[in-house]
Model the fold of this input.
Amino acid sequence: MNLNIEESVFKQRVVNCARAMKREDQDVLLLTKPSNMYYLTGDGRLCAFVMISSDQQVAIGVPQTDVEDVTDLAYFDHINSFENEVGMIHSIAAFFKQFGISRGVVGLEHTFLTSSMMKMLTHPHAKPEAVKVEDCTDILSKLRTVKDPIEIQLMKKAGRVADIGMEAAVDSIKVGLTESQIAGEGEYAMRQAGAEGFWRSYVASGIRTRIAHGIPTNRKLKKGDIILIDLHPIVNNYSSDICRIACVGKPTAEQIKAYDAYLEALRKTISISVAGIGMVELEETLHGVIHNAGYGENIFGPPIHGIGINFEEAPLPPGHAFFHGEKAPPPLVENTTLAIGNCGIYTKQWGLRLEDTVVVGKKKPFVLTNYSHALI
Amino acid sequence: MNLNIEESVFKQRVVNCARAMKREDQDVLLLTKPSNMYYLTGDGRLCAFVMISSDQQVAIGVPQTDVEDVTDLAYFDHINSFENEVGMIHSIAAFFKQFGISRGVVGLEHTFLTSSMMKMLTHPHAKPEAVKVEDCTDILSKLRTVKDPIEIQLMKKAGRVADIGMEAAVDSIKVGLTESQIAGEGEYAMRQAGAEGFWRSYVASGIRTRIAHGIPTNRKLKKGDIILIDLHPIVNNYSSDICRIACVGKPTAEQIKAYDAYLEALRKTISISVAGIGMVELEETLHGVIHNAGYGENIFGPPIHGIGINFEEAPLPPGHAFFHGEKAPPPLVENTTLAIGNCGIYTKQWGLRLEDTVVVGKKKPFVLTNYSHALI
Done:
């Protein structure tokens, strides 16, 4: 029994998935990405796989150690276990046989599998030779983009935990602490508040805020530093994303100007995040305000991305989607969840960005992360 | 200037890499795995790439935001920057041209790149059409398996930080805390002690210890639980790996028996970790003791793996190496670093394992993780 979501929700997802597979002419999916497995069955873990047939059968393969645990958590029709990698391959072959699939198309996760994993899953002892391989990324992305009501509930909780983590991280700031210690304060508070984990934290300070991916280092905070903090808790399998800027001492007039521009861009973009809007329009709105404030040359990074079980998932703006193996998204539907504000303003001496997790509403957006936007 | 390792060390690595490329008939490497980039240049980060030519030229491509930061940290001959994914592709093409490579072979990281990333890096606008793609995993694995003296120094520090994290996690244990909170205590202590980050933590308790990958949940500790804690700090870019078992209350006689067998297996395997030994012999030694104690049917998982910049890297036991896209390793050389004890004894009701980070010595092994092995 899944702890948070009813069986009927998972069953309906499998029905929707099978329908999408028929549209795409894929006869079976072979999934190993934990978030995709979780979405369809209620459990997603390392060293396991899920196969979905277009007639709605669900098969799971897991390490022999995990059979009972998976049986308690997941919904499926068939389960198989294995002792090692050879066993995993045979287990896949057994399900191809059980499903009666000796030709046709198997969908694999091209945006997740490394070439070596792809080789293992399509090993001649696993996959029947006549079965062709195609990418199933888009099938899963489309299913997962619009959230069920229960998913929105779970993401609200993840949003609150992000706020708690941000508060702890910001409150801890003082001269002499390292970026890593600030990250630790935020992460610790998130685990205390109910996160079962988190995606990588970014904490960059002073001149390091100018880089695109400020993974924490042992750089110590100095007076006059600005600090970028970007946190991503996982709560009941769902993620949220928040980024804020804090200061040790006072920000410069230039930093305040850029900050105000970014905040205006963020607010304006959030305010138009309603059903029917396109990702391009959101991107252009965010960029537009920053551009008009004179920082057009200082923008870097995709400004918006989807969020849910993964902290970065579909939809992505079309330009970025292409390079990440995803398709350009259609106009957004109510209950799509976005992290808005992922690009930044970066100068040679400092950088800043703000990010919030937002539910696309029918008439109004709903913001899940609510820690203060004040530059403190 | 790299903070911990001299320029001459990186230069020598590039020389060794170029020599290996010639042996393997690879004319240029195109790397995006941060650990491989770090190993050869002194910097490895997301959204960047490194190209190494067989005549020892080093080129780096980075986001435009990161040029100065990378210039401060890395050693290279050429640097290029880009604004987005299209720019990254053009940047790769520019280096192919600069190196004068219009045919021959480019080595790519098949054990790291997803199919969609592979497609992007080999896009016709990036890679000259006549240049063939081969896997360069083994070249980098061979270079990185045996550690330089400075790497051993850095890993000693990572070992001490793992001990500190384990102590904090074990000391925090009490009825009612969640697995996630225990993980948080260990992670917090590691960041306080100098870790700039960590790989995923495992904390499993009670019946959840029976599964192979016990990622923390919000399960609360109960009296009588055993708790598996597995931590992996990153300190100055180098990792260590420690796993211990603790109890809330008293372990059962059966648990003590299995624990003692595992500890004996671990100690015996560590004791023979000297130059000239094979991974198979280490694996058989560890399995042998567990088997003789009557738990042969309860073993799951690769018992040993290499460790260094990544917490799991080459060498792997031959059977596992094959499925992970790595080659079977030759007899071990002095200063190879291993995490020993990665497999466990798993029953239907509980599981346990112990793990330490070990330097293969000329005549004696040197253990980097030294937190008590007592079952407490």
